[in-house]
Amino acid sequence: MKIALVAGATGLVGKQVMYKLLENNRYEKVYILVRKKLEIKNSKLIQIVIKYDQLESISAEVIPTDVFCCLGTTIAKAGSEEEFYKVDYTYVLQIAKIFKERKASNFLLISAVGASADSSIFYSRTKGEVEQAIRQLDYDSFHAFRPSLLLGQRNEFRFGERIGIGFAMIFQPFLIASLAKYKPIHAALLADYMILRSFETNKGNFVRESPSF
Fold first, then answer.
1. Would you please indicate which residues are annotated as catalytic (active-site) residues?
2. pLDDT of 64-108, one tens digit each?
3. 144 - beta bridge partners?
4. Which of 18, 28, 125, 159 has its CA 20 to 30 A from that of 76?
5. Cβ–Cβ under 8 Å, residues 9 and 15
6. What is the CATH classification number for the domain harbouring 185?
7. Domain housing 106
8. How many domains does the chain have?
9. Contact between 117 and 179 (Cβ < 8 Å)
């Protein structure tokens, strides 16, 4: 039996991952990191109420086999590049380090299309740098999922994202071959792919891009 930990369980994809893990019979426990307790009752669910700048205080008894990191923000929502970096790099890497020390086997991360440590774009460079840092931790398997625009009902309105989705849907028939990775994907489908990959026995570091997540 497997034990999951989900960071970012209130986000668009994280919420889907959480619910699907609770329904999956191969997972006996599902830990989630939340800032405020959710109104959800499930015998498998264990909510860890915590501030992300206090991650080191997570009980040593929390020992997952698989870590699903769905944590992320935008520069606009964070308020600055510095605050964005704190969430999408510092917190993500700290989570990866903590649970690697506790012998977690798999780390599954939502990154972004175009992620590269060599990118001239701050957002893409941050995503690429955190991928690179996690690879060096030597998990049994590390999966970096690089979706383009995500479809689904968010808790907050993102104007730029809505515009992007509109254009992407119009041009979707032309997003083929090397451009296929820019196709929007529904959050629930991405969650399915993440959980599916958690059962793979292949070891190593993997980059997962649409449409072959």
1. 123, 127
2. 999 999 999 999 999 999 999 999 999 999 999 999 999 999 999
3. 109, 207
4. 18
5. yes
6. 3.40.50.720
7. 2-209
8. 1
9. no
